[in-house]
Amino acid sequence: xxxxxxxxxxxxxxxxxxxxxxxxxxxxxxxxxxxxxxxxxxxxxxxxxxxxxxxxxxxxxxxxxxxxxxxxxxxxxxxxxxxxxxxxxxxxxxxxxxxxxxxxxxxxxxxxxxxxxxxxxxxxxxxxxxxxxxxxxxxxxxxxxxxxxxxxxxxxxxxxxxxxxxxxxxxxxxxxxxxxxxxxxxxxxxxxxxxxxxxxxxxxxxxxxxxxxxxxxxxxxxxxxxxxxxxxxxxxxxxxxxxxxxxxxxxxxxxxx
Length: 257
Ligand code: IPD
Ligand code: CA
Ligand code: CA
Fold this sequence. Notes:
alpha+beta; D-Maltodextrin-Binding Protein, domain 2; 8-stranded mixed β-sheet; 5-stranded mixed β-sheet; 7 helices; binds D-MYO-inositol-1-phosphate; binds calcium ion
């Protein structure tokens, strides 16, 4: 299954890269002006699903653009065919394909492929996380002032009740630096490989984070909600760190605005 996930992510990733600047039809999703989708997101997803269904016709699918099953199947594939759509539409080369595989509701494998850097992140539950075959370990930063954090903003930023902008200001004054790359799946992969020391976001979907949560856990990091409770990819709030900075980051997320 992991091999097929890798093949699907790489094929779709190459399709994305070849499609930059050739988008014909951009639509708004859910009436949100910032939440865009094009025929390239949909085409990437169709390629991935075709490959999975060709090998595993009985497996369930939960995919961003076409929805999917409510976990009645033993195995379910969770797919974001283009994570970083806004970057992609502007020609910013920070986007990826991310796919995870659930067995009876537990994520057992994940793949995130960045076609621009040709970086393939993979993990199997209990088997470690890898970047192009090299084993990953989270960073060792233990002071916030030495740490580089990353976050993302929800498309409904004006109305989101979870204070994304206020958290941003609080982390900005606590850390060495703060980034907003525009791809939650890459943000998590970068925490797993130690490029970032931590990541939080207030409104993610399971396809944005399923593979990345596995990478961070397998690389020795920690992933919870904002109260420190175990991570559930079907809830929106996520904090992922190298573990050493987790409590300090939870304290910042609990700060008044
Ligand atoms: C988005 C990206 C972004 C994050 C948003 C996501 P999309 O996914 O991961 O970094 O801030 O919350 O929705 O729409 O590009 O697949
Ligand atoms: Ca996404
Ligand atoms: Ca997407």
